[in-house]
Every structure is written in structure tokens, then in C-alpha cells.
Amino acid sequence: MSGHRSSISLFLLAGLGVAAHGQSAALPRVELQVDRDFGYTIGSIIEQRLIVDLPRGASLEADTLPTPGPVNEWLDLRAIRWQERTDQRWELAVAYLVLKGVRNPEPASIPPLVLGLRQGTATAQLQTPEWPFTLMPVIPPAIPDEKVAIRGPLPAPSFSLRTQAVAMAACLLGAAAGAAVAAVRLGLLPWFRENRPFARTFREVRKLSRRAKEETGYAAALQLVHQAIDETLGCAVFPALIGEFFARKPAFLSLRTEFESFFLSSQRYFFDTGIPDRALDERWRELEDFCRCCAKAERGAG
User: Fold this and answer.
1) Looking at the domain covering 6-16+23-141, what would its CATH class be?
2) Residue boundaries of the structural domains of the chain
3) Do 95 and 79 form a contact (C-beta atoms < 8 A)?
4) Does an H or E element contain 166, and which?
5) Which phi and psi angles does 239 have, rounded to 5°?
6) Cα dist. 83→11, 47, 49, 87, 167 in Å?
7) DSSP string, 168-233
8) Where are the strands (E) in the chain, listed by range?
9) How far is CA 178 from the centre of its chain?
10) How far apart are alpha carbons 284 and 261 in whole angstroms?
11) Helices 280-300 and 215-233 sit at what angle, rounded to 10 degrees?
12) Please, which residues bridge with residue 116 across strands?
């Protein structure tokens, strides 16, 4: 899915000025990229990408970045990931959850993030740009309250234990039949190992799955897969950038449905509330299968 992307650049002197041959050092630079600045309602996820360019010798203090939690009375920070691209460039992917409902369109803004910087023994702070956007009502303003239709409660999903058992048995038989081939082709044997992003991630996800099949391990595995996707494209990949991913990495095009399913499952897990829609064992199995397919496509890409 593609959409309008806006960007804001900010130049700030963060108290780390360094003189060299009578010249002042370059200022830090923050570029903020968002898919769109309109159409958000209560419950929307706003995804931002921040590119931070620092003067030579300066570094970003990752342990000073904010942790997920409330930002103010109507906004939550739900996730933040970062990568050091080069000695002077950092990339951050930030996701916010909107908790404010309105009756009419109104302006709102996401407050700046404060980043800690270090250069030698000196420390300072760099403030990212404030980001304004338009908050929209869930119900169009022209519809009166008495004409708003409320959907009744949905019936609980039904699960067949017999079907689940047959599916699990079939998967186990298939996995056993292809284990030897997969071990060689995906580099699971020490002397055949590869360091490609998805091949490496597939090994790590399998280790997590077999060591402790629990929710905390599953969350860590999802983060590993996100990092592999980011590393493959060379930048943070949000659902809105999935079209750009396949345009630049056509070897994965046959897995478009699986990629969209992964992003949907990840968003539901990290941002939606309520009981997960499937059993943990089934989610682990689906994640391993996705990594296996990506590692195979990665080998075909050369």
C-alpha cells in the first residue's frame, strides 16, 4: 500500500559543538517521515520513521530513548525500534496509538521526542520535530446520534480440536520428512550456515520456539523477523512501505500474501487488546513457516 509521505527536517545544535581548524562542527539533523498527516481516528496506529544524522564523533545514547507507555492523556507510545546505519546515521521506527475520539475534525500534534547524545565525555539532548496532523471522527458529523447503528456482539469463534490435531499431525509429518533437506538448504548445519538476514533469523526463531514456547519468547521472535525485513531492504519497513519492499526485492514477490499476513498478525499482537485469535503453538508454527519461506526466497535472490 502506498500513500503520500511527508517529511520534516530539523537542524539543532545539541551542546556538542566541536571546533576544528577554526570551523564549527556540523549540526545534528533529524528527518521525520510519515505516510500521511490526515484520516486518523481513535484507535489508529501512527507510524513514524526518524533519520538522525550526527556530527562526526557523536553517538546516540540508545538507553535514553523513551520506553512504550502513555505520552499524554490521549496518546500512547506503543513500540520503538532503532538501528545504527553508519557511524553518523541512526534510524528509528516509532509507533503511536491514538486514544482520543472527536465529533468533528480537529488539529492535533505528536510532541517531540528527546534523544540523548554523547561525544567523548560530553552529553546533550536533541529534540525531534513536533508533528501536526488532523484527527477525524469515527462517525461522520452529519449523522445524528439517533441514527447511529450499533453492531451487536459477535459470536465466539468455534474451534475443532479434531481438526487442530489432524493439522498438527500433518505438519509434524511434513516437517519430519523435509528436515534433512531443510537443514542443508537453510544452513542449519554448522558447516553450511549462512549469515543472510532471513536464514539467520530462521535459526534464531527455531531456537526460541524449542527453548521456551511462551508469549515473551514469541514477542522476541516477532521483533527478530521485523529486523530481518528491515535489514533486507536497508530501512525500517512499515505496512505502508510493503509495495516499496517488493519493488526493490522482487525475489520475495511470491510471498506477498504471507508478508501481509505477518504484518497484520504483528499489529494485532502488539497493538490490539483482547485474547489472541489463535493458540500459541499455531502462531509459532506459522512464524517458523514464514521465516523458512523467506530464507528460501533469499537464497534465490543470490
Assistant:
1) mainly beta
2) 6-16+23-141, 178-300
3) yes
4) helix 161-185
5) -55, -35
6) 21, 16, 11, 11, 39
7) HHHHHHHHHHHHHHHHHHTT-SGGG----HHHHHHHHHHHHHHH--SHHHHHHHHHHHHHHHHHHH
8) 6-11, 19-20, 23-24, 29-34, 45-53, 58-60, 69-72, 75-84, 89-98, 106-110, 114-119, 122-127, 131-135
9) 31
10) 14
11) 20
12) 125
Q: What is the pLDDT of residues 144-177, one digit of tens each?
A: 666 656 666 777 767 677 777 777 878 888 777 7
Residues shown for the chain: 302
Q: Are 48 and 32 in contact (CB under 8 A)?
A: yes
- Output the nine-digit C-alpha cell for 114: 528527546
Q: Are 107 and 11 in contact (CB under 8 A)?
A: no
**259: Cβ contacts below 8 Å, ≥ 6 apart:** 229, 242, 245, 246, 252
Q: Dihedral sign, CA of 10, 13, 18, 22?
A: positive
Chain position carrying cell 552529553: 123
CA 106, 270, 111: angle at the middle one, nearest 5? Answer: 35
SS3 category, 295: helix
Query: Which sign, positive or negative, has the C-alpha torsion 249, 250, 255, 260?
Result: positive
Query: What pTM was computed for the model?
Result: 0.47
Distance of CA 145 to the CA centre of its chain: 37
**179 grid coordinates:** 528436515
The yes-or-no verdict on residue 132 having pLDDT over 90 is yes
d(CA 12, CA 271): 33
- 12-34 residue pLDDT tens: 443 444 333 333 446 788 888 88
